[in-house]
Amino acid sequence: MKNIAVIVGTNTDAIDVNNFPKWLEDIPDNIFELSMEKWDKDYYGLSSDVGIAYYLLKKSKNNKNIRVSILNKKHINLETFNKFDYILGLYCPYYLAFDTKSSKEYNRYNNLIKNTKAKFYQPLSLQKFVINKKRYLTELKKHNIPVVDTIYFKVVDNMNINNMLSKITKECSNWNQKYFITKPQPGGFGIGFKKWELSKVLKNKKSFTSYIKKIEKLVRLDIPYLLVQPFVPEFEKFYEVRTYWLNGKYSHSLGTIIDPDSLGKEGFEKVKFAYPKNEYKPVLEELDNGYELIDVKLINNLKKIAQKIIKILPKDKTGLPVLLRLDFGCCLDNKDVCRNYFLNEIEYNPNLFPEYNRHVDIMKRVGDAFLKKINT
């Protein structure tokens, strides 16, 4: 008998009850209510973490070899963790830190993962690698993976604004770019993402100074940095391609264009979606913003890059990641091919977009991938 725990509690990435796959339609109220996703004052969607947990719970009822329990943040302690053989931490240390605004809670959770007898997914080595954008961008660049040029400022109290702007001005000149973007490490959910026009910042530093003060007040996890990158104009015009990988194998892709004005603000981001031509049938005509199709050649090229990236990820006894999302943006200058896609983000516990991935039963796929992982 394998005792399995699934930790839930995220407050993002939901599916409307009207679009549930058949296996989810009988979810009882007491489990539905574990979902933290709230769409408005009267209506809740079901967050994907609870959907995955319920799928595994249903599978356990027909399999005498596994027992599944659903946990939340109240159960994040060593005594509880040690009751299980395997733990799927869909609610991970970063989520706990984000909710509690506490680096102590983040460190406490990390230490539990280190000390528990249970095998924890995703492994801490992968979590640390992905949260540290400076580390993985530097590592990928060494391996000739296309990434955006980035400069880094360590987040400390009373950061020197003039020195920062001096360095940014120099790099913008090197990049031949009038605009730059900033985002903190760790980030996520559009927190701290901002686009700047250099000339306006230099003319009046008040807005930039205020922004830096807010960055200084964010919860500091591990070694926090502020990342500064050249603004890539195509990123707002062409689809960012999010490729999903389960146990190291390609699952599917989803294209998104996020309205930059909606990033980092309360409420829903404004997103347009697109789908690879060979993966999706035209069955989503009811989507609010419509949908478009992505050329298969592009997807195949990105898959090749993604496979190289997966080989670079930290290796430990748990093997390849159960779940991984590699996001590619458009486009970098490249003398050989004019412009090409670059690796924008790595996510170990990504949004699955179940509402827009209904043609791919992504919650079921993740559940099956986890069961396959622990049985190999």
In short:
The protein is of the alpha/beta class and about 375 residues long.
* Classification by helices and strands: alpha/beta
Q: Judging from the principal axes of the Cα atoms, what is the shape? A: globular
From the alpha-carbon coordinates, what is the Rg to the nearest angstrom?
Answer: 21 Å
> How far apart are the termini?
15 Å
The averaged pLDDT comes out at: 90
**Helix content estimate:** 25-40%
Number of helices: 12
Count of DSSP E strands? 16
- Strand adjacency order, main sheet: 14-13-12-11-15-16
Q: Write the element-wise H/E pattern from the N-terminal end onward.
A: EEHEHEHEHHEHHEHEEHHEEEEEHEEH
Given as residue ranges, the uncertain stretches (5+ residues, pLDDT < 50) are none
Strand coverage percent: 15-25%
Largest sheet: 6 strands, mixed
Polypeptide structure, described:
The chain is an alpha/beta fold. The protein contains twelve helices and 16 strands. It has helices spanning 29-32, 48-61, 78-81, 93-100, 103-115, 124-131, 133-142, 161-175, 198-203, 206-217, 296-312, 362-374; strands at residues 2-7, 14-15, 46-47, 66-71, 86-89, 119-121, 151-154, 179-185, 194-197, 225-230, 240-246, 249-258, 271-276, 291-294, 323-334, 338-347. A six-stranded mixed beta sheet has the order 14-13-12-11-15-16. The protein has a four-stranded parallel beta sheet with strand order 4-1-5-6, with helices on one face. Strands 7-10-8-9 form a four-stranded antiparallel beta sheet. Strand 15 (323-334) and strand 16 (338-347) form a beta hairpin. Helix 2 packs across helix 12 and helix 4 runs antiparallel to helix 5. It is globular. The mean pLDDT is 90.
